[in-house]
Amino acid sequence: MEKFLIKGGAPLEGEVPVSGAKNSALPALAACLLTDEAVTLRRVPRVRDIRTMERLLEHIGAGVERSDNGRVTVQASVLANPEAPYDLVKTMRASSLVLGPLVARTGRARVSL
Among 2, 28, 51, 91, whose Cα sits 20 to 30 Å from the Cα of 70? Predict the structure, then answer.
């Protein structure tokens, strides 16, 4: 078969919501550590790596608020603990993304191998 021939009486129309990509959202969440102002990200998917990153940001000292519509707000005005424990980073390779922002803000960072 080389082609599909579709006959119909009505044109297609409407909207399809598109969620964000995990591989784009993880670096964006880590970048929220670069400012002490609140940052809101939209269309953040609800997957395990995202939830792990949110818990890591909370451990570091940032406030993380997630709404049901895919919005995540990160408030990183105080970074009290620039260390990422093994329990959080063992399941997520993207945990190394927080190193640069932590060094930029606090002068040091530590992530378990």
Answer: 91
